[in-house]
């Protein structure tokens, strides 16, 4: 293993985003300056480029879906915001809660370094999205995609006077989309809940933080079959098995 250069610990997590072209121009310049004096980062960047280049040569030319870039970056940004919200205590043992599967466990990448795992995850997401695009283009004319958008409402207007929320429903699943959403209280994240008839809201592993402009998205795994409403509340980092605050947003699953 090559020796690490000065400041390596501050930059080692930038290798995968850099190779994937997912860093800001200013960060790119700063990282390249660091990499010039850090053999460890250079070697890891080279190692990451090889499978990416091989994938590009092996895959047939295909225009990716228009939304692919946004979906990938939404995933990366959401994970980063959740970690930032957790603060220094993020790596300390937490009280028993709903078991959440980490993004590395979800794709079977526990044994890889964070940088390699991130690169592999993004490749899996990209391949899945492109495969979905190919499948959809081959859909029979008699089978139009079933999709609709359901508008939601703000339950606490004083907290989010200008917020807008909607649910994008399709045969492939559900996506919560919010605009002009305020940041949750310090040390909290937003969590999505599913409310079925005659039962209490059930937690999901969909945790998210709005971007600076208040926009946010959260994919609801498994869809919303049998669900009468989707709720959003602010909860402790890592989520909660039961709501600890009143819902801020509510979206009925029927128009």
Number of helices: 7
The Rg value, from CA coordinates, equals: 20 Å
Mean pLDDT: 75
Largest sheet: 5 strands, antiparallel
Shape: elongated
Distance between the termini: 58 Å
Helix/strand order, N-terminal first: HHHHHHHEEEEEEEEE
Category by helix and strand content: alpha+beta
**Helical proportion?**
25-40%
Low-confidence stretches: 95-104, 106-110, 129-139, 141-145
- Strand order of the biggest β-sheet: 2-9-8-5-6
Task: Provide a short characterization of the protein structure.
The protein has 255 residues and is of the alpha+beta class. The protein is built from seven helices and nine strands.
Describe this structure as you would to a colleague.
With 255 residues, this protein is α+β, with helices and mostly antiparallel strands. The protein folds into two domains: 8-137, no CATH class; 147-252, no CATH class. Helices cover 35% and strands 20% of the residues. It contains seven helices and nine strands. The longest helix is centred in the middle third of the chain and has 24 residues, at 114-137. The radius of gyration is 20 Å and the shape is elongated. Mean pLDDT is 75; it is low at 95-104, 106-110, 129-139 and 141-145.
